[in-house]
Amino acid sequence: IEIIKGSVFAPLQIEGAIDSSEAVLSTIGPPPGKLCDPKLYEQAMQDIVNIMHKNGFKRYIHIGGAAHKGGENENRTFNRRFLRFFLSLFSKQILVAKHLEWEVLKKSNLDWTLVRPPRIANEAASGNISADEKMLKSLKISVEDLTDFILEQITLKEWIRKAPLVSSIGK
Fold it and tell me: Helices 92-107 and 38-54 meet at what angle, rounded to 10?
């Protein structure tokens, strides 16, 4: 795994960053608590999709969030509705940007997975992860559990063209 830093708003940097990649793992998105233009993130996602298509790359794993809508027939529990309400008050632009990014992914021909975690906690891994398209089992996931899940997606096919809600569910 090679970590490459650059600007998602610079298509030439994107192209250089993904050159000869087996898969692209992306954590791009608006920074929490800061104003942003969601359309910039939509365009960045479109640039990534176009560059990957042009270069023949297919596997793309992207981080979304448990608060944004992402699947049909989802079970929107009280906790998820509260999380969405809270973010819509304080970080509405993040919700809009993440939704726009997802719309671009859905229209693409990439083998994408949109990983949707709740709050990411800096704590030890539980080693027990729930991944489900319709139900969020808890309101947090450890950084280590999330990292393990994302890295597994490079070779697994189960979540291709899907948006799983992922969370730690204890030991």
Answer: 20
Contact criterion met (CB below 8 Å) for 157 and 108: no
CB within 8 Å of 131: residues ≥ 6 apart: 149, 159, 164, 165, 166
Phi, psi of 60 (to 5 degrees): -135, 125
Q: What are phi and psi of 121, to 5 degrees?
A: -100, 140
Please state the φ and ψ torsions of residue 7, each to the nearest 5 degrees. Answer: -100, 125
pLDDT digits (tens, 9 = 90+) for 121-165: 898 888 899 999 888 888 899 999 999 999 999 999 999 999 999
Q: pLDDT tens, 66-122? A: 877 666 667 777 777 777 677 777 677 787 888 899 999 999 999 999 999 988 889
DSSP 27: -
Residue 67, Ramachandran bin (φ over 0: left; ψ between -120 and 50: alpha; else beta) = alpha
Cα–Cα distance measured from residue 125 to residue 171, given in angstroms and rounded to the nearest whole number:
9
Query: What is the longest distance spanned by two Cα atoms in the chain?
Result: 44
